[in-house]
Amino acid sequence: MNKKRIYLSGITILSVLLTACQMNPSKNMVVSKNDGSFDISIVESASANHNANDMQSVSHTKIFSATDHSVNFEIDIDAIIAERNMPVVEVAPHYITESEAKNIATILLGDTIFYEKDTLLSRDEIQQCVSRWSRLTSVDAMRELFSTADDITIAWHIDRIKANIKTYTMAFESAPEENPHNPCDWTYKKDSYYSDPQHQEHSADNDSIQATAHVDNIPYVFSVSTRNGNDYKLNSVFVYPREINMYDNAIYTARLCRTSKPTNEQIADIRLMAESMLKQMNIGQWDIDQCYLETNSKNEHIVHINAVPVLNGVSALRLPQLDNLKSQETFASNYYLTNVSFNFSPNGDLLFFELQSPIDICSVINDNVSVLPFTDLMNRVEEVLSHSDIYAYDFNDIVDICKSESIDLGCSVSAKHLDYNLIRVKKPNTDNNYYYVPGYLLSGNIEFYNKATGDVFCNREDTILLAINAVDGTIINQ
To answer: Which of 54, 68, 108, 329 has the highest CB neighbour count under 10 A?
Structure first.
């Protein structure tokens, strides 16, 4: 079928569809089992050993439809993947200690003074805020900060920043002259301690250390949270410039990132710096799997560096982060996927840091587990996909929207990319431990179109379609 892309003018439904297409498709095609066979499979070793750098070429091509004919599939895989020994590794959450929190803060922000985060501002801090914001009271200055804003929006921003200046100028008289902040004592308190002016703590909250520090005249927030509850587990660290109002982050980003475009050598140096920071933290092994430059519409250059855990010499695959830690489904996770993210300016200034869900290795169950033949796994993929329907790929109720408009909606799924490494699965009958097992990640494009006219409503490229456990062929539900 020849399809043509159609535009927004005059077609109300497209505005809804195009907005909806920014979301990930739901995963309703989960197949798992808890009959004990997986526990047997993971101790069966492969018959051959491989070198760490061995590679293999794999290919698979097939065109088919869902059993209810609501989705057309095309699998066209031609990839080179690792043929190394693949392990099965049991892990548990690593609970960040108070001393580790202090060490991470110092590694990221340097040997500066950290204070307990609170809502108070000294006179000096208020003066800094007013001075920073006063530069934005003209149309030209505000337009430079928000280059794409229209005149009405610019005027609204100026009114808002002037109101902020007035409020904080009035607060100056009653603000303390001396520094009102207590030095950070690096002990865990409940989240509510930092948000409640009376520092009352609620027992159900996460344990937290929240601190502030100044680096090169930029105030930063350091926040670490930990939780070991029956409902969910949590270990996370965030670092970012402190925002007193909605303009601060834009001001800091403009100051640090509106530079000349960084060279490849600069980006490589920033990557080495991130690697060094991770090693100094001494919380697991990491592989930087993403390092790229983003240049936004305001000509701000931001270097993104992301890392995944390494287990027994093999990296984990990158998967979308979980959005629900309290799911009651049998195989659902209650611990975020392990990940590290850095954002840097071209000169290496830290803009953002996130450490999520560090892990400890409990044991290597098998350092060379037997996996199913590639053809068998692809046949399993075909079986699972064919039994899915159009709702499995739905973007924010697109299917029902089109039904309400009497549109005969078609869906095409094209799977053309395959990754092979370790994927986390929940250890059966426990809420505390997980396995990392070899698995394939299949990704591709999803397209929705009008069957009658061929008009394409929307599509999403390079989206994950399915993750499959290479040991037993079960579909992995995160």
So the answer is: 108
Is the separation of the CB atoms in 350 and 108 below 8 Å? yes
Which pLDDT score, from 0 to 100, does residue 330 have?
Answer: 57
Say what the pTM is: 0.89
Say if residues 59 and 79 touch (Cβ distance below 8 Å): yes
Residues 6+ apart with CB under 8 A from 107: 277, 280, 281
Residue 15 confidence (pLDDT) = 45
Cβ atoms of 439 and 293 closer than 8 Å: no
Residue pLDDT, tens place only, 107-161: 999 999 999 998 889 999 999 999 999 999 999 999 999 987 799 999 999 999 9
Q: Rounded to whole angstroms, what are the CA distances from 16 to 5, 11, 12, 395, 408?
A: 16, 10, 7, 10, 16
Do 411 and 389 meet the contact criterion of CB atoms below 8 Å apart?
no
The rounded Cα 426 to chain-centroid distance in angstroms is 20
